[in-house]
Specification:
By secondary structure, the protein is α/β, with parallel strands linked by helices. The chain has 7 helices and 7 strands; from the N terminus they run βαβαβαβαβαβαβα.
Length: 227
């Protein structure tokens, strides 16, 4: 029997996190008796912390890690993949755009692959973000010398493959860093199409100048062997 963690980074996700935990529990209970739901709350200023703590009081399978202050994307994603304890880790964002049930499309490939990425089909994002993502994935593909279509997407990975992999990025480049280092390590990687839901509330910060500049700075450091 495979043990599974659904690992969720959360930041000001009070409108989505409760339903996301409920969906995760429903899906995992159908798949295995050995599971956990891990929430890394990155210093949310809304009701996220209170909501997840109330759930954890009733659900022993829900594990919570609270950052007192916002540590940022890179640091939080590192914990998303290192804090869970189960054999396989499925990362999904706290905004609810990736339904937990999409794990069922990735699981059939765990016998053959170590790292399975969800390729967002009919991506429900702004045109600007989709354009930026297209060219960013082309750039990462050139560095990897193999085509990748959605490197910043959700992933199902075998926990043990991150042993002895040092992750240094503090920006959104963290996804690409994981992919590139696992590829270099010889891990077997596959992309599988998944569904993508519209964002319920708020806006993504992925195309903000600060996010873009920090991502490309880390990419530069990686290319010169400093990351």
């Amino acid at each position: 029997m495979t043990s599974i963690s659904i690992s969720i980074p959360a930041y000001n996700n009070e409108s989505t996190i409760v339903d996301l935990i409920k969906e995760s529990k429903t899906v995992l209970s159908e798949l295995t008796n050995d599971y956990e739901i891990v929430i890394i709350n990155d210093g949310s200023s809304d009701k996220t912390k209170n909501l997840i703590e109330e759930i954890a009081k009733e659900e022993h399978r829900v594990q919570i890690y609270n950052h007192i202050e916002n540590k940022g994307f890179g640091e939080t994603i590192k914990e998303v993949f290192t804090l869970p304890n189960k054999e396989w880790i499925f990362f999904i964002p706290g905004d609810g755009q990736i339904p937990p049930v999409e794990i069922k499309k990735l699981l059939p490939h765990i016998e053959t692959f170590d790292y399975i990425l969800g390729l967002r089909k009919n991506r429900q994002d702004s045109l600007l973000r989709k354009i930026f993502s297209f060219f960013y994935n082309i750039l990462i593909s050139l560095i990897a010398t193999t085509r990748i279509h959605d490197v910043n997407s959700v992933a199902l990975l075998k926990k043990e493959i991150l042993q002895n992999v040092k992750l240094n990025s503090k920006s959104a480049f963290i996804h690409a860093e994981i992919y590139l280092k696992l590829l270099r390590k010889g891990c077997k990687i596959k992309e599988v199409e998944i569904n993508h839901r519209p964002r319920k509330t708020g806006k993504s910060g992925a195309v903000k100048l600060r996010v873009i500049s920090s991502t490309f700075f880390d990419l530069f450091l990686y290319t010169i062997g400093r990351l």
